[in-house]
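Revision sheet: C-alpha cells.
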Amino acid sequence: MSDTIIIGADHGYAAMKTTHFSFPTGLVGYEHEPYTQQDVLEYGGKFYVVGSGRQPLQKDKTATEDYYLLTLAAIAKELAFRGAGPTAAIHLAAGLPLTSFGRDKKKFREYLLRESQPVSFRYEGIAYTVTITEVSLFPQGYAAVLTQQELLDEPSVIVADIGGWTVDLMRLDKPGMGSWRRSGSFSVPPRKTSRAAESGRSSKASTAPSRPSVAPCWYCFSSWAL
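Predicted:
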C-alpha cells in the first residue's frame, strides 16, 4: 500500500462532491447484479446504483448507510481519476453544516471511520480495498473561505453556502485586523414548500433571525435559523 491519499468529500443533501466529481445523492439498492456496471457499487453482497434519482432529505446523515455507501463511490471515483490504483490508504476530509457542526462531528467521524478496516467493495466492476486511516471534519463554508488567499486580508467576509436544500450564511470579522471572529451565522432550513421552490416558485421567510445567546467566536458555530 502506498502513501496515504487525501480525499475531500462534501456530503451534500442533493449531491456528493469531490475535487473532480459531483453526482446526485440518489441510491437504489438491488439484490441481484444490474444489467450494466456503470455507476454500480457492490458492497456487503448487495448492489447499488449510485446517483440514480434523489433520496429524501436526511438531516441526520448517519441514520442510514446511504452516505457511507456514497462515500465509497466517491473514493473509488477519485482513485480511478488519479490513477492511484484500487488499494489505498485514505485520509478523508469532510464537512458539516454550520448549524450542526458541534453537535454531529463526533458521530459523523465515527460513522465514516469504521473499526472494520480495510473496506472491500467493487465499483463499476473494479475491486477496491481501502483503509480509511483518518477522518478530518471541517465547518462547511469556513473551511472553504480559508483556501481563498485574496480574501484573507479582508476586514470582513460574508460566506454564503448555497446547497440543494439549505442556504448557510456566516459573517466573519477581523477586530483590529487580527484573527477572524464569527460575528453571526444562520441557516435557511428546508421548508414544506421545497417542492414549489424546486419548480421555480419561491417562498418568503415569515420571521427574522434571532440573536444567539453566546459570545461570538469563529470556532463556536452555534447558528440560528429563519
